[in-house]
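ARCHIVE CARD
Drawer: 12
Card no.: 0347
Subject: one protein chain, sequence and derived structure
Cross-reference: see card 0346
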Amino acid sequence: MGDIRAILILVLVLCFTVVSIPQIGVTNAEPKTIVVPDDYPVIQEAVDNTVEEDIVFVKSGLYFQTVIINKSINLIGENRETTILDGNGTTTIYIETDNVTITGFTIQNASVSTQEGILLLYANNCNISGNRLVNNTYGIDLISSDYNIVSGNIFEENSAGLSVSGFNNNISRNEINNCNTGIQISYGANNTISENNLENNSANGINLYDTQSNKIIRNNIIDSGERGLLFTASHNNSFSWNNFSNNVQTFDSHYVLDWIDISVNIWDNGSKGNYWNNYNGTDNDGDGIGDSAHFVYEDNQDNYPLMEPVDISTIPEFPSWIILPFFIVATLVVIVIRNKIRKKGLE
């Protein structure tokens, strides 16, 4: 009995000792900020001296530099209009790792051959927002890159504003004007293209090549010099709440070869479709939806064409009439739960 008591006391002492020892562990250092040109005159030198999650802050100025990023860092310009990276004919920013943020730059003149303002190669979960891309072969090019956000950028005078080859990317609220092609999606799937303004592009607004199951919603595709949409072997892509207006040709799939099936896609969400400025149908019941389907191409039609252009910045994610019933149901649920709690309290 005495031996057992001694063992128990020893165990308790050991436990107390272990608990009392300060916990030894690896603590992550706070991200540091490196300033260009204060800390390093060259952006690449600053990037090379970072660790994961650090910030490279670039002050306003003109930088003739190419930047290669292979760490998960944040590259931030002081001002989009005055912090300028000039590729001088070559790719300007090359991202080859995940979880990179680029914001606050004008990126220009990556215009020789097939050069990119920003290139993401096998790079996932990056955020490219609030930049201006001018006079590049590709403004931003995502190659085999997934789950990225490209938002709030301005694309001007690029051969292709934005090229996407990947899965589950979110492309939203960009201004893509005066390019050859606005957005090109190829070989990927499940990308969301929403609330972008594609205007005055000399060839195509959106070009889909061998891609499936993308969601294209709430975009302006306006004044394209050749086609609003160009499809090649692309299926099951869904379109709703878009404005197709004043394009020389709204839709074309004539590059599909005889041995490739015609592209068949979805042109409404089951209740609302798109606005087509060349739709000639009527709206006798005044519900804002055409009484007859809009023929798009071969086996493609919009069953619920909209009679008026859409304000892409104010469309709810779900119909507004759902809000009131949802609120009533939620209120009833709260009342039922509260009454049950009160009954339990009285028991």
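Annotation on reverse: Residues 7-26, 315-338 have pLDDT under 50 and may be disordered. The two ends are 49 Å apart (CA to CA).
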